[in-house]
Amino acid sequence: MRKILYICPSSGVGGAETFIKQTHLFSNPENFKNHYLLFTTGPLYDFLKQNKASVHLLDSPPRLSKPSDHKRVRAVIKRMVNEYNIDIIHSTMAYGAIFSASMAKKLKVKHVWFQHGPASGWMDRLAAILPHQGLIVNSHYTSQKQRDLENPIRHFIPRKIPIEKILLGTQVEPISPSERSVFRSQLIKQYGMDQDTFLIAMLCRIQAWKGIHILLEAIEEMRTKKLPPFKVIIWGEPFGGQDYTNSLNERIRRKSLPVIMAGHCEDVRSNLAGVDCLVNASIQPEPFGLSIIEAMMVGTLPVVPDEGGPIEIVSHGKNGLVFNAREASSLASGLSSIISDQTLKEKLQTQAQADAQAKFSAKRAIDHLEEFYEKVMQL
Q1: In angstroms, what CA-CA distances link 203 with 153, 170, 245, 302, 320?
Q2: Integer Cα distance of 55 and 144 in angstroms
């Protein structure tokens, strides 16, 4: 049996934390025993504790700038590796790798790290030259960005370290058309809309790089066209301050846009199932885009920009729509086409769900991860 120590610096609800959660839910218990070290408390820590995982929480979050914190984390890693006879340390992001890599080498255990993206800074570059036997990425785009960062220091990086692309999965269960109708009716009633309203959604942290203002600009343009009635629901909470959220609310109020800022999304599955399409309008390329596959799994059509990880998921006119990144007019054109053409919308929704079921299950992702561990153990 392989024993894995997952080291995760954060405990939020993002893609990286969701993946760590899935290692507990979908790992093969006959062949793998998982242990977890988290730097901070939060939803991920609560989940692992509630589900009786072997999880340790640091007394306080460590800082990279404090040598004493490195010593403290290394001591905990040493204790856990020895106590649980760990075979592989799996670090989340470069931040986790910086704290873990040298101790893994000292203890003579394998070390891998998952670059969930964005690959953009000095920490990602540093992690590349620290001891590790494998790098995991979630898309070809993320892999290429990491490689670009490494180019200036390529001769310092050990050769023949495998890079594995593991498509993230979702534990959101597929849904039938009849169930979609029920959830749609619930949203219609909750927000007081007409039954024939076309529902557009966004699900993201409320911050500028997510491009919510691009969607608002597209909606302004769409209101000048003769389209069936439509409404936008934006789920998410402010991240990094309230200013951007305030500016969005002011724009919606001043221009009387058909947009609802709905706050936290408590039930992702039912809410996404109740809308017609999900928009990702990020103005920086997304490394992957977890909400995209969550939407597809319940038969909701994805509308994404033409860059980054999303275009490795969505094929224009086949299982969704792709628009020119950062161009509101291109987004407006795409949304107008599916609002006006019910047949096209339903065709894309059907194929989106079929593709999600075939490629993006959480169990499939964790099986792939564990196959990669076996490859690493042979190095």
Answers
A1: 37, 15, 14, 12, 17
A2: 33
- Cβ contact 356:364 at 8 Å: no
Q: How far is CA 237 from CA 165, 198, 212, in A?
A: 30, 23, 12
| pLDDT tens column, 248-266 | 999 999 999 999 999 998 8
Burial group, residue 58, by CB count within 10 angstroms (0-12, 13-18, 19+): middle
Side by side, the strands of the sheet bearing 277-279 are: 259-263, 230-235, 198-203, 277-279, 301-305, 321-323
DSSP string, 213-256: HHHHHHHHHHTTS----EEEEEE--B-S-SHHHHHHHHHHHHTT
- Identify the band that residue 156 occupies on the pLDDT scale cut at 50, 70 and 90: confident
CATH of the domain at 78: 3.40.50.2000
Q: Answer whether residue 379 shows pLDDT above 90.
A: no
pLDDT per position as a tens digit, 267-280? 999 999 999 999 99
Report DSSP state, residue 300: P
Q: What is the pLDDT of residues 318-341, one digit of tens each?
A: 999 999 999 999 999 999 999 999
Residue the block writes with tokens 């997304």: 286
Query: pTM of the entire structure?
Result: 0.90
* Domain that residue 41 falls in: 2-169+361-377
Burial state string for 154-177 with b = 16 or more CB within 10 A and e = fewer than 16? eeeeeeeeeebebbbbbbbebbee
Answer yes or no: are the C-beta atoms of 374 and 32 closer than 8 Å.
no
Label residue 155 by pLDDT band (50, 70, 90). Answer: confident
Omega cis (within 30) before 228: no
Tell me how many domains the chain contains: 2
Q: How many residues are there in the chain? A: 379
Query: Is there a single domain that holds both residue 354 and residue 370?
Result: no
Q: Please tell me the distance from the alpha carbon of residue 357 to that of residue 173, in angstroms, as a whole number.
A: 9
Per DSSP, the three-state class of 263 is strand
Mark whether 349 and 369 lie in a shared domain: no
SS3 326: coil
pLDDT of residue 142: 95
Q: Is the pLDDT of residue 371 over 90?
A: yes
